Amino acid sequence: MPQLPAPDYPADVRARLAADAGEIIGRYPDSRSALLPLLHLVQSEEGHVTPTGMRFCAEQLGLTTAEVTAVATFYSMYRRRPSGDYQVGVCTNTLCAVLGGDAIFAALQDHLGVGNGETTEDGAVTLEHIECNAACDFAPVVMVNWEFFDNQTVESAKELVDDLRSGREVRPTRGAPLCTFKQTARILAGFPDERPGATEATGGAGPASLAGLRLAKGEAPTGRVVGPRAETPPTRSTPGPLGGHPSSHDAPQQTAASDPANPAGPVEEDRGKDQREEDGR
């Protein structure tokens, strides 16, 4: 049975989207390069990328619907079915997982009564597990519409989704104020972020991520010095030069070039063995 063509947007919606699409396409020397932001644009209209939206993108760019579909189905940031106003993503990559991410994700599934990628009956929250979002020093991390909620626990995550569903104000740990998924999609399409305070909002890495940068800038003492072989090496519990920070063991180590008192090379008995082998020749 042949597939029915996707319905078109209403005339007023299509005219508005066409004007926005023209602005996006004008930013690129090759119109095809505008496909990703155009997919965000149509996603901002309906909350997910529909067959109607993909056909619209194809028409605007002179592509086939197959070409647009190939891109829309490749990237997980494009939703293919209706989803919630708030995409709640729990990082279950290695560090977040072992620090509580797996427990948070399991608890939220039970608490909301949904599985991975599913949406609550009220249409407010879509729950999913996500890959690393480069915030390991704030683990475990939950993201809502790509805004960070750091250092979460099972209880704080439950409170977060309850607040989202009830309409109470929720503020990310850092970054811009929270907005709906449709509003987020429009911002990702390249249009101005009009949220109050968004231009002043800043993120930031945590102390663990910045330890190496501080060392490189000379803003902290150099790493601990490895003692001579005869001495007992320092243990992990030894307070480090960075105030006992857990990343201090990764600091640059002294080498033979910078620590003449502790030259590298074979120990004395090995030197004797090398000499005997040399004499034997």
Strand and helix layout:
Blueprint: H1 11-25, H2 35-46, H3 51-61, H4 65-72, E1 86-91, H5 94-112, E2 118-119, E3 125-130, E4 142-144, E5 147-149, H6 154-166, H7 181-188, H8 207-216, H9 268-280
Parallel strand pairs: 1-3
Antiparallel strand pairs: 1-4, 2-3, 4-5
Helix pairs in contact: 1-2, 2-3, 2-7, 3-4, 5-6
Descriptive notes:
Helix 2 packs antiparallel against helix 7 and helix 3 (51-61) packs across helix 4 (65-72). Helix content is 39%, strand content 7%. The protein has 281 residues and is of the alpha+beta class. The longest helix has 19 residues, at 94-112. It is globular. A hairpin with a 5-residue loop joins strand 2 and strand 3 (125-130). Among the domains are: 11-72, Arc Repressor Mutant, subunit A (Orthogonal Bundle), CATH 1.10.10; 86-188, Glutaredoxin, CATH 3.40.30.10.
Question: Brief overview, please?
Answer:
The protein has helices spanning 11-25, 35-46, 51-61, 65-72, 94-112, 154-166, 181-188, 207-216, 268-280; strands at 86-91, 118-119, 125-130, 142-144, 147-149. By secondary structure, the chain is an alpha+beta fold.
Helix and strand succession? Answer: HHHHEHEEEEHHHH
Radius of gyration: 27 Å
Summed over residues and divided by their number, the pLDDT gives a mean of 80
- Quantity of strands, as a count: 5
Largest β sheet strand count, sense and barrel closure: 5 strands, mixed
Label the CATH architecture of the domain at 86-188. Answer: 3-Layer(aba) Sandwich
- Tally of separate helices: 9
* Main structural class: alpha+beta
Across the major sheet, the strand order is 2-3-1-4-5
- CATH class assignment of the domain at 86-188: Alpha Beta
Distance between the termini: 86 Å
Under CATH, the topology of the domain at 86-188 can be stated as Glutaredoxin
Strand content: 5-15%
